[in-house]
Write the structure tokens for this entry.
Amino acid sequence: MAPLKSEYRLALEAGAQALDAALDGLDAAGAVRRVLADIYPGESCVVSSFGAESAVILHLVAQAKPDTPVLFMDTGQLFDETLAYRDALADRLGLTDIQTLTPNPDHLKADDPDGVLHQTNPDLCCHIRKTLPLISALRPFKVWISGRKRHHGGDRAALPRVEIQDGKLKLNPLFDWSRDEINAYFEAHDLPPHPMVADGYPSIGCLPCTSQVKDPGADPRAGRWAGQDKTECGIHIAEDGTITRTGGR
């Protein structure tokens, strides 16, 4: 089995390098359009939390191919404002294939029957509520598009444009965008902000693990799992805990 795994891995790495080369010289909009319409039509999707900065990547997707599948994890513990924003933004942008993913009821019954798992094992909580539903939903696709950016800091500070995760290619078109560029794009395209941003939430996840950030100069993800070592929910971490980075940009 080892040789087969090795050959598959080499093929994935070659695919990632080829994709990165094919996107060379393109801006974010061009990269999104090239992947969705030219290189992987019908085999790509975007994963979105409909959070604080999500409107930018979703606008780029809508401009390129509005029927692109948009995978959204409804963990059962999201803010009502996020669910309302999902519906309003999808309608505003003309996105026609929002796929809302939910946790397996059997997993919740076994591991989080009282809905308080986040207090004792936040990694497992994210795993059953986000990671497992996403892994299942990604099976039909070869490429998924993420809205992650280097300016978020932490493990994202060295984010490349193309990477490999769990046997899929992942494109981060906004990898090198600054916070100012994100804000400018919102303004230029008159994009509606998530309603909680104005209340001091620069990054918005599940209600129990998201808090306000009072320092305007703080890391934009400082309000996620505040006071804990945890910085990612897990959907951007491979099952073996590793990420293959490609391209070095």
